[in-house]
Write a structure and sequence with these properties.
Elements lengths: L1 H8 E5 L5 E6 L7 E2 L5 E6 L2 E6 L10 E2 L8 H12 L6 H5 L3 H4 L4 H12 L7 H16 L8 H16 L3 H18 L5 H16 L3 H9 L1
Parallel strand pairs: 3-6
Antiparallel strand pairs: 1-2, 4-5
Helix pairs in contact: 5-7, 6-7, 7-8, 8-9, 9-10
């Protein structure tokens, strides 16, 4: 029972770029309820947990966070919530299955192939491994079968961007990163930190390519 309590109530601690660095227990914040369309998000400054709003909150409106990655389509979110937290979500996003058509846009066989390719990636440790990852994604992207709003295409673009950064291919990294901005705006509206981090990454790449006006415009968002 104690292990289950810890598992259900702990928070993943992340750094300034929203990368996981550990877990921690914060009893008061564990009282927050879940929504797949939350009005708040958890961020960290070191080990200090902060609750930030991602949109305007009405007087008397309940503060909510998402217990899971909200980018997933409704069916996958429901499965994870039931498996990990033992409840089914009935928020409006789940009831209406909103944005599922965009998240799974394109031919099913195409996005399933991309999904498998992304899930097979383990964080590469050498440039040769990064080159292998990038080559596979370049091949899939060259087929042009999926829109960038498809969540598995979006994850692949993110991985391709990471590969190019690790290989110091800045121009190509910027190309892939720029393609992610509109899907990020669609799926992480308002003041969501994941969108902010992506804008920062793309802005820094634009700056490195002497695209100063574009970098300023991106960072101002």
């Amino acid at each position: 029972p104690l292990f289950l309590q810890v598992t259900c109530n702990c928070f993943t601690i992340s750094n300034g770029e929203m990368q996981d660095v550990g877990v921690g227990l914060y009893p008061s914040m564990s009282l927050l309820n879940h929504s797949c369309d939350p009005n708040c998000v958890i961020v960290f400054e070191g080990y200090q947990l902060l609750l930030r709003s991602v949109r305007e909150i009405q007087i008397g409106e309940e503060l909510t966070i998402s217990y899971i990655e909200s980018l997933m389509p409704t069916s996958e979110r429901q499965k994870q919530l039931l498996r990990q937290y033992c409840f089914e979500c009935d928020c409006l996003l789940c009831q209406n299955q909103e944005k599922d058509s965009e998240k799974l846009a394109g031919e099913e066989h195409a996005w399933k192939e991309v999904k498998d390719a992304v899930n097979e990636v383990r964080y590469p440790k050498s440039k040769e491994e990064w080159k292998h990852v990038l080559a596979r994604f370049q091949n899939l992207l060259s087929m042009g079968c999926l829109p960038d709003t498809n969540i598995y295409q979006l994850k692949m673009l993110d991985c391709a961007m990471d590969a190019c950064i690790n290989l110091e291919s800045w121009e190509e990294a910027l190309y892939y990163g720029s393609r992610t901005l509109e899907p990020y705006r669609l799926y992480y509206p308002g003041f969501h930190p994941l969108r902010a981090v992506q804008l920062l990454r793309v802005g820094k790449l634009q700056y490195s390519q002497d695209m100063f006006p574009q970098a300023l415009e991106t960072l101002k968002q």
